[in-house]
Amino acid sequence: KNFPPGPRPVPIFGNILQLNLENPINDLKKLSERYGQVYSIYIGSRPAVVLNGLQAMKEALVTQAVEFAGRPQGLMVNHVTEGKGVVLLNHGPIWRDHRRFALMTLRNFGLGKQSMEERILAEVSHLTSHFEKSAGKSTDPQTLFHKTASNIICTVLFGTRYEHEDETLQLIIRMITENAKIVNGPWGMIYDTLPLLRGLPLPFQKNFKNFETLKKFAGDHVAQHEKSWVPGEPRDFVDCYLDEVEKRGDDDSSFNKSQLIFYLLDLQFAATDTTSNTLLTAFLYLMTHPDVQERCQKEIDEVLGEKAQASFEDRPRMPYTQAMIHEVQRVANTVPLSVFHTTTKDTQLMGYDIPKDTLIIPNLSSVLNEESQWKFPHDFNPSNFLNDEGEFVKPEAFMPFSVGPRMCMGEGLARMELFLILVTLLRRFQFIWPEDGGVPDYTPVFGITLTPKPYKLGVRLRGNQ
Ligand code: HEM
Predict the structure, then answer these.
(1) Is residue 403 assigned to a domain?
(2) What is the pLDDT of residue 115?
(3) Is residue 283 part of a domain?
């Protein structure tokens, strides 16, 4: 009663047969045109409320921060991660303690021996060498930025970086990217909708198999750390966590080794497939919008002058480049349906009643393209982030990291990576759509993260080098 309206569900399947499961974003948009900013759909027998547009998103995730801060339980993602980690923990003290611990630890890495900025720039130098070898030719960037993003988080978590050719690096990237497509793709939906099929040897089993490999990967790192860890002298995230376990003693706290392994995988996963897909989108648009690329390069040259390296502190002096990076994030729409939330108590939203434990789907995509919020909602145009004076401005509807208490924990790291990587590469190289590249296809492949279709990246050394 007074539940948000929506299309009529059919028994067993709910509304999933009415959605294009390969990519439901357009269907969700059409439903919003019909039923409004807050509407319901059924995933099997489970009701879900879809939030669309800035107003609904803010009223739910910010104004009623606690009421909408839960996470669904009983889905494939929960079974794969065995109810541990941080991303899928329900709202409560274990989630809060772990979130706080990681935010503080990640911040402290900026103060340690090697700052976050130095770690990122060190990794960017490997990207630069790769592109130097490709200069005058074209290269396939499909997993290149995944390697960069994965290595940056690996150095933070484990103090380890892998060569681009390393089999372990390639394996974990393959597992992460495969799982990102299975989880909310058709097979994930089937798993979540039809519990009777869960034990059968269907393609969703791959997700569980991949996770076993990933668990071994993180478990091996933890085992090595346990042998070499010196309490009170942390080298990386794992050491900090081991210190925390010791500090808490046997206080029945949730800080323990198996929680650590899933926490590491959450961070590895969240940091790899997001930043890398955003970078893939960046280069797709920069190649096909050479005017934007040149304007960034001019600004970067002027601001950096003779400086050896870019620094994150340079960004206020680069309003156009900042606007370009934000515009890339807007069109990349990297996590289009966010991570699903749930309500933690009975509540109301925009006049509707929503009971406790209702699945909430924050359609971030609908805000990043909302026609009333953007000057050029359907184009790639950095002017979306510039005022009449050419200064950088960030509209409220810019929420690729979501909003509220569950918002992305890696925003600071991701923003630093995007800035340092794009500025360093644009300073040194020109990126050109290759003559044999065919017609650019901007339609992304759907999953937890959106991925641009494979393309080739034409690389030239810039004239001023
Ligand atoms: C461009 C890059 C990134 C984008 C677009 C992005 C986006 C998001 C989004 C939309 C959410 C869901 C928030 C919600 O449920 O309301 C999220 C959660 C999360 N992100 Fe990111 N993310 C990015 C990079 C990173 C990085 C680098 C890290 C690692 C340090 C990270 C760690 C996390 C974690 C741990 C959560 C779960 C937070 C929680 O449940 O409390 N993300 N991210």
Answers:
(1) yes
(2) 85
(3) yes
Which one-letter amino acid corresponds to residue 78? N
Q: Is the pTM of this model over 0.90?
A: yes
Domain assignment present for residue 7? The answer is no
Output the CA 435–ligand 1 centroid distance in Å.
36
Neighbours of 406 (CB within 10 A): 21
pLDDT under 50 in the chain at which residues?
111, 465
pLDDT at residue number 114: 62
CA dihedral 403, 407, 412, 415 (to 10 degrees): -60
CATH number at 383 reads: 1.10.630.10
Residue 295, domain extent: 16-461
Give one word for 204, left, alpha or beta, with left for phi > 0 and alpha for psi -120 to 50. alpha
In this predicted structure, what is the pLDDT of residue 464?
55
Residues in the chain: 465
Domain count across the chain: 1
Query: Residue whose CA is closest, atom 3 of ligand 1?
Result: 274
What does the pLDDT look like over 160-217, one tens digit per residue? 999 999 999 999 999 999 999 998 888 998 999 888 999 999 999 999 999 999 999 9
144 three-state secondary structure: helix
Q: Is 408 known to sit in a ligand binding site? A: yes
- With a 6 Å cutoff on the Cβ, whether 130 touches ligand 1 is no
